[in-house]
Amino acid sequence: MENFELLFSNEFNHMTEKDDLLSITHRLASNMNNKYFFNPEPFKIHKSVNIYENFEGRNLRQSYYQDCTFKEANLARTGLAGSIFINCLFKPCNFIDSNLQSCDFRNCDFEKITFEYTRMNKSSFYKTTFIDCTFKSVSINDAIFDDCKFINCKWTVSIENTVFKDTLFNNVKFRSMNFEFATFENIKAINVKFPFPTIPFIYNGLKYVLTTNDNIRITSAQKPEGLTKEEYSQYINDLEQFYVATQNYFPLTNIYIAQEKYDKVLEAIISGIKIAIQLRAFRMLKYYCKQIKYINNITAHQRQDLYFFILNEISLSELENFEKNSLNLYLPEVKNLLFTETQNEIIQILIDTNINESEFDKLTILMSVIDKFLENKCTYSIELRHNSPFQGLIDILSNPENVQTIIAGFNLIVALTFGCIGVVQNRHKKLSKEDEEKCKQYGNELSSNGIIINNVYIVNNGNIFISNQNSSQGDIYLNK
Fold this sequence. Notes:
- With about 475 residues, this protein is α/β, with parallel strands linked by helices.
- It contains 13 helices and 28 strands.
- It has three domains: about 5-240, 3 Solenoid (Pectate Lyase C-like), CATH 2.160.20; about 245-340; about 345-480.
- The protein is globular and about 75 Å long.
- It starts with 17 loop residues before the first helix and ends with a strand.
- Residues about 1-10, about 420-430 and about 470-480 have low confidence and may be disordered.
């Protein structure tokens, strides 16, 4: 970050003189009720300065602040979306209706701040502390708090899909709020009352409440001091029966996970997915698939089966075009959750072939060889791209022990299709004798049928392997 300024020290900075820029800004602003919308100093860098001005209604998006102190600054209705704050201190400031969406806060401290109607969606907070702060009608969706602290705070907040990781809640008051689809990962709470109805809607929430030694209570209209965790646990059976009767499968699944009733977990997830597709509530698909992460010993094949179950259920539905657009917002995330949120490793292989659109016999042979090679080694899916010639994208999920065998074997097969002997000799060292012979058979089968894989791109853990038959070196490695 020390050379951050260099990013803006280029020829484009000097294309317009400052006076001309101010005139342009004035002409553009004449069309706006908010005269500060067009900011002549975007991406402005602030380092080691005290900020106390009146910025109400100003557009300060994508600003950069490092080692700054904000004290009694008026940031009401201020647009700070996409800004970065590093080692900053915020003392009493006006944050009413401020836009803090998609911001990045690192090692910051907020003291005696009232956030009212503030938007913090999609923001990231790392090692950030909030002391004596009030959150009133604040929106915090799709955010993450990592190694943060909330001390003597009051919350009336709308939360969805927000992660609290290694975070401390010390004497925090939660009022009229929920934690819908939030995640608790190794949180710590001291003198806190969690809202009664929202706990089953939190990933790991119920498990935390039932197993923690923290000093917590659960809100109850019957007891102003709140329920103990032992008293709350007496309602688990009622909650389970209620959610079964009302077919609300998301909290029901979390109850089964907390009780380690894994035989019922998948059944509940599948039932929830069916209803979500029927109701076109495609957003819920990602939330159900995320619950898979908390099932012990779920296999890669079960993950794959669930993914194809979802695709099959969707194929049986007659979707309007606008419904397809909604589905496409969430389907890539569903695939990512099922295939990457796992202890197994991910391999992606993109191949360019010489198979034209009319050569379906060759395409069948290629698919057969891939199936035979990957059988019993991994879980995989193949996406064919109808270019001319065909491209293939193979997504592979495998345990770490098989990864090098798959990569080495695939490269041996590919090399044999275009007779690159040097590549073959370099690759087979990582294969057993039996695997090497099988791969040679598969490569020769492709070659004898006139099938050539011209280029192959393999991505594994950020390492990119490129094999190109036109390359004099044969292999190229890129480490990311």
